[in-house]
Specification:
The complex is a heterodimer. Chain A has helices at residues 3-28, 107-110, 115-120, 192-198; strands at 38-42, 47-49, 54-59, 72-75, 93-94, 100-104, 129-134, 150-157, 170-171, 182-185, 199-203, 206-207, 210-215, 220-225, 234-239, 269-274. Chain A is α+β, with helices and mostly antiparallel strands. Chain B has a five-stranded mixed sheet with strand order 10-11-12-13-19, with no helix packed on it. Chain B is globular and about 65 Å long. Chain B has helices spanning 2-24, 28-32, 37-42, 91-99, 320-328, 408-420; strands spanning 50-53, 58-63, 68-73, 87-88, 106-113, 120-128, 131-139, 145-147, 154-158, 178-186, 189-196, 203-208, 215-221, 223-224, 230-231, 236-244, 247-254, 258-263, 272-274, 276-280, 287-296, 302-310, 315-319, 341-342, 346-348, 353-358, 363-369, 376-382. By secondary structure, chain B is of the alpha+beta class. Classes of the chains: A alpha+beta, B alpha+beta. At the A-B interface, helix 1, strand 5, strand 6, helix 3 and helix 4 of A face helix 1, strand 14 and strand 15 of B.
Chain lengths: 277, 429
């Protein structure tokens, strides 16, 4: 056994014993609770169409389930606390790490022709200002309350009933032998979660590894390749389910009459060729 | 040299194992607490969201976090209280003691009843350390409460990969998750409905059982009447299979609350299937559970029913004969007002119940929170009566109340319920 191996052996024994000691020591200490806070609410835009379907609330820490609506208030410009706007879901829609919850606007009010919509109309009034407030009563799994309330202010704008169009997407050129970001511009704000899952750069049917950054409130993404671009053919691949912030997708608009046909029904993806500089 | 280093690594590893082993050895006491984090990591599931018993006492567990269905081969425990009602009014204390947790660290996910032992299986999540831990609590009428061993013999089906990507995005950002809302076993197949945090979609998943490793998906379209019928894209919340005129149909309840029939033969992989809306049991409501069983009327005539429990209104008892008649028509095709329309069966006074399951020939088992105390209750309801007499304070209970001749049948019914709910001392002669 050489010297290196002996040192390794000794180090391992010491470390193993230390780990146990440290573990016991830690067990005796009061656990440190990170104070949670709201990192962001999506869509990021402050101009929210009246037919908005969902908001994503993103937290710094894993949060507790329970009756989520008791921690959320929606105030109009007169300070009225509005009820019946968000869907009182039996199931809370968390990401698996419990750091993000989806807040659905009652779909019955978003879609025309459903009873809730016919009786009460859309949840948001065009031109009205609102405050979506996340209260400090919300607890993290570790037991800490939110550090401070989070307020998202927005104004409601006219409904968006136009499905996104592949033709309006603009893609920058790639520069071989660099890791220069590729920029994809959608022309409107898209669903930020879906942007990360449904948009890929491919070459020869293989997905190119890299990082996606959401820019300009979801109107564009930056794709930074893990490896340098090569002088080969790349394509932008978009899952046709990709939606704008009011859930209109490349298949068709969210409130789709049966008389209107769906696009791309037989295919999962649409493609756009990427030019090389 | 490489060889020596390699041997040193092995030796070092062995020494670590030996030196750590003594302290990490599981004592019998620790082993009883089956769901310690270590044990859960070794177990088959990441979350227990939906429970459903299938053939041969197989328990299907819908695991939303893993995007999977796990099938456990369970054995029937001896239950000498079988057939009796559950009257566990402060059941949360049992669970809290079992797990050593506070009441606000517990979430009830679903309830099922073992077909043979009639013991309750309750899917829960509870907080341990910095995360939610899944567990299935087994309980019976005698308050015998224990944890199911989740590493017990099982098979597993991962739902279609693209539906749930349990990975971190490039910037450590978790994305799409699937919440399994219901599952139903019928003639060798599992029907699974779910909600996504990301896509508002109507995808229904179907898998063979025993699992073959594959599942198929169908997109179910229903339409609502306005501007030439717009597609809802709404996800199914609760479902069961009914046989109508010799043909199997999926009976599905949606939010707000249309009842829709979908021919099972149409549910092939990738299909776009149109459902028929046979009724609308009320807006502003979310359906919870659907149970199918044989009910009885006052003359003891038996008939097959589907019980639909709701979050925001009383339950609906839907006789299958009525569903059958409604399915012969064209269904609801235009707006008819703000009430309840089309087929909706009759109302049952079951409200405020988180989950229900068929307990035995006489009972439905429910789990609920008491409105006043907030206590968790695991309690039985007699089929066909759909109520618990101990929930009410009525003039019948006033001292000196005498039943008239015409009221004797009421007294008999009340006596039956009093006995069932453990109030034999209050039985009126």
């Amino acid at each position: 056994m050489n010297q290196f191996a002996l040192i390794l052996l000794l180090f391992s024994v010491t470390t193993a014993c230390n780990l146990n000691t440290k573990k016991e020591h830690l067990l005796q200490e009061t656990p440190v609770v990170n104070v949670p806070f709201v990192k962001n609410i999506y869509p990021e835009t402050n101009n929210i169409p009246e037919n908005i379907l969902k908001f994503y609330i993103q937290f710094s820490e894993p949060m507790r389930e329970g009756y989520f609506l008791k921690h959320i208030r929606l105030l109009d410009s007169k300070g009225n606390n509005l009820k019946g706007i968000f869907f009182d879901n039996q199931y809370e829609l968390w990401t698996t790490d419990h750091k993000q919850i989806t807040l659905l606007v009652d779909p019955g009010r978003v879609k025309t022709g459903l009873k809730e919509h016919l009786k009460r109309g859309r949840a948001f009034e065009v031109g009205e200002r609102y405050q979506l407030i996340i209260d400090t009563t919300w607890k993290s799994i570790n037991g800490g309350f939110l550090k401070e309330p989070f307020i998202k202010e927005f104004i409601t704008v006219a409904e968006d009933v136009i499905a996104p169009n592949i033709e309006t997407i603009k893609v920058s050129e790639i520069i071989p032998s660099t890791k220069e970001p590729l920029i994809v511009m959608f022309g409107e704000e898209m669903d930020v979660l879906q942007l990360k899952e449904y948009v890929h750069i491919i070459s020869n049917n293989s997905i190119i590894n890299g990082r996606v950054k959401i820019k300009n409130k979801g109107k564009q993404i930056q794709f930074i390749p893990k490896d340098e671009w090569k002088d080969i053919n790349y394509k932008l691949r978009i899952d046709v389910r990709l939606e704008d912030i009011v859930a209109n997708s490349y298949v068709g608009k969210f409130d789709l009459p049966s008389t209107e046909s769906k696009k791309y029904l037989q295919q999962q993806f649409i493609y756009k060729t990427i030019q090389i500089k | 040299m490489k060889k020596i280093v390699k041997s040193s690594f092995a030796l070092a590893l062995l020494i670590i194992v030996i030196s750590c082993n003594e302290k990490n050895k599981i004592t019998p006491d620790e082993h009883i607490a089956i769901n310690t984090e270590t044990k859960t990591e070794l177990s088959a599931i990441k979350s227990a969201n939906v429970l459903e018993f299938g053939p041969n006492n197989v328990l299907f567990v819908g695991d939303s976090q893993a995007g999977a269905i796990i099938a456990y081969e369970t054995k029937a425990n001896e239950n000498n209280q079988k057939g009796k009602a559950y009257n566990l009014n402060d059941f949360d204390k049992n669970i809290e003691e079992l797990l050593g947790i506070q009441s606000d660290e517990l979430i009830i996910r679903d309830l099922a009843v073992h077909p043979e032992s009639n013991e309750a299986y309750i899917a829960i999540s509870y907080i341990s350390g910095s995360k939610y831990i899944p567990a299935i609590v087994i309980a019976n009428q005698s308050r015998n409460t224990r944890l199911m061993d989740l590493s017990f013999k099982h098979t597993k089906l991962k739902l279609q990969k693209s539906d749930v990507e349990d990975f971190m995005f490039y910037d450590n950002f978790k994305g799409k998750s699937l919440t399994i809302t219901d599952l139903d076993y019928h003639k060798g197949k599992l029907y699974v409905s779910g909600l996504s945090n990301q896509d508002f979609a109507s995808t229904l998943r179907i898998a063979d059982y025993p699992f073959t490793g594959k599942s198929s998906t169908s997109s179910v379209e229903i339409f609502h009447a306005m501007h030439g019928q717009n597609e809802t894209r709404a996800p199914i919340r609760s479902l069961t299979v009914v046989n109508l005129e010799g043909k199997d149909y999926l009976l599905a309840a949606y939010t707000c609350t249309p009842l829709v029939t979908i021919p099972i033969d149409d549910l092939v992989d990738g299909a776009q299937v149109k459902g028929k809306t046979i009724g609308d049991v009320g807006y502003g409501n979310t359906p919870i559970d659907m149970l199918k069983y044989v009910g009885q009327d006052m003359q003891k005539n038996e008939f097959e029913v589907v019980l639909l429990t709701n979050k925001n209104q009383a339950a609906n008892v839907l006789p299958v004969a009525g569903i059958n008649e409604a399915n012969k028509g064209e269904g609801l095709t235009k707006f008819q007002g703000f009430g309840s329309f089309g087929f909706q069966g009759f109302k049952a006074p079951l409200a405020g119940i988180s989950h229900v399951a068929e307990q035995d020939s006489y009972h439905i088992l429910g789990i609920r929170r008491d409105f006043d105390s907030g206590d968790l209750q695991l309690v039985s309801f007699m089929k066909n009566l759909y109520m618990r007499i101990s929930d009410f304070q009525s003039e019948y209970e006033m001292p000196g109340y005498t039943y008239s001749k015409e009221q004797e049948w009421v007294r008999d019914l009340q006596n039956m319920m009093k006995q069932d709910e453990g109030f034999e001392n209050l039985i009126e002669k």
